[in-house]
Amino acid sequence: MAQTQVQAQTTVEGIEGVQGLVGRHMGYSNWVTITQEQVNQFAVATNDHQWIHVHPERAEAESPFGGPIAHGYLTLSLVPGLLPEIVDMQGFRMGVNYGTEKVRFPSPVPVGSRVRAGATLASATPFDGGITVNIDVVMEIEGVSKPAMVATVVYRRYL
Question: Model pTM greater than 0.85?
């Protein structure tokens, strides 16, 4: 996925700055095109070679989607790369992915379509040495009303 680095739409400093974002929609990432090569590489990485993803001719002929679709987990895996385009939480020495909650894939992502993430800070809970943030992410498909993915992703930022 080739992306140009862009400045985050929302920038905050430290625990108090993060807590000030709770309930706020922080913005959108750039649009990203889902390619067949990307889907194939994800299939290799996850050992999920289901034909609806990696066999375009069969998917066009037999699937209800009219062609190959991205793995749902591929869509989820885009989140860590897209969130820095949306929010920059400064004043921390490091951050880690802590988990996900309530992940759903309401709409398939056809190969060749473009997706983007929108993010709202759902909660920010301090702990000794940092803060846990829950971010509600909606992955949109360009031109489609139903989202590709909705999830709450959980990150920990350490002072």
Answer: yes
